[in-house]
Hints:
By secondary structure, this protein is of the alpha/beta class.
Amino acid sequence: MMSPLRCALHRIRDTSVSATLPSIESLKAELRAAAQALRDALPAEERKAAAEAIAARAFPLALAPGVIVSGFMPLKSEINPLPLLQKLAEAGSRLALPAIAGRGRPLTMRAWQFGAALTRGQWGIREPTADAPEAEPDILLVPLLAFDRAGFRIGYGAGYYDMTIRRLRGLKAVTAVGIAFAAQEVPKIPATERDERLDLVLTEREAIDLR
């Protein structure tokens, strides 16, 4: 029997390039559910080892003094970016974390450092307190459920990161870096004009340059 993820990918492959937006969103929802199940099934030991492998490898971007790198606090089975953030902070990077400003709005990035206070935001996600100053990152570490080598990703469906990347790219040169398990790669993500492309993806196996 075909797995849910293989079934979703089969449907995407057979979809016409002229597919309507509702049909693309339906495919995204199917892929999202299958990718979530696949990620949830990864053993905890494997997830921990993957995060450590990414942090141990040389970071693929040159880091100017004081560069601002935004990360995220992992939710459920998301890969943990904290080992990488710790390494980057020790190398002189300044850190930021996202705070949800409301549905339909870009994320607010706020300055953060290890040991600083965090509060519980939407869905219980840990985020900086409201008095932490806002930041405009140079590099964004982006969570995802699935990605392809065209630079597209599937998130949870609210579009927060697409809106955030688009806003920041309108202000300055920003590098969007997906961080994921290698198993989350798929041949093709059904994308629309609202989807922002990633510049790189880091997995435990490799750093994939998509620029």
